[in-house]
Amino acid sequence: MSKNMENVAENLIHNIVETVTDTIQHQTSKPEEQNRTSARVKKLFGRQKTIHRIFGGGQSADLLLWRNKKISSSVLTCATAIWVLFEWLNYHFLTFLAFALFVIMLVQFGWSNISVVLNRSTTQVPRVAIPQDVFVNVATSLGAQINQFLNYIQDVACERNLRQFLVVAASLWAAAIIGTWCNFLTVIYVGFVCAHTLPVVYEKYEDEIDEFLYKLLGQVQDRYSKVDVSVLSKLSRGNLKSKKGD
Questions:
Q1: Rg (CA), the chain
Q2: Could you give the count of Cα atoms lying within 13 Å of 93 in the half-sphere of its Cβ?
Q3: For residue 79, what pLDDT is reported?
């Protein structure tokens, strides 16, 4: 009887200790969960989707985020080879096109002659053909992007928003300055390399980059508010006074 009472007492004490430890762990885990949720909410531009879903979640996202390292590295290597070929070796597009067509014809000529010697059908010679849908899709997407850009610039010019107008004008001025430093092919190549490196770097160091960019945006907003108070507000007031005078 006494042993049973001792076992019951030990079990009761053990249960009390477990409940106390569980409550303490639960209370300590709450601030950690709140910090995690706040860290998740505090993303760049308030986004809630992953980087993979932002890029569409398909093969293009896999390519940009290096899900398949062989394919991504081969695409970047081909782009680098084309840039080196035209920029460093000073190849012209017509020269490259003529040389590529000559190589294709040479391969087909040799294949057809070898097939005749080996008594095989000449229809087995590989032929290069680009589907028409490729040209239609490229032209449609390119035309849509160009029209969207033109509509945006014209909307900014017609809405009489001085701040937005100055931001777009400064962006175009910066693009013109960059154009004096390098040619159009180099700009496209730099953009291509950035598109294949920056997303994967951001996905790997997401929290550090978000924190740095938030601090940088805070500094930019502080300086912009100072410029707004000292310069832009005076210009807008001057425009209103001139309109009232008219």
A1: 32
A2: 1
A3: 92
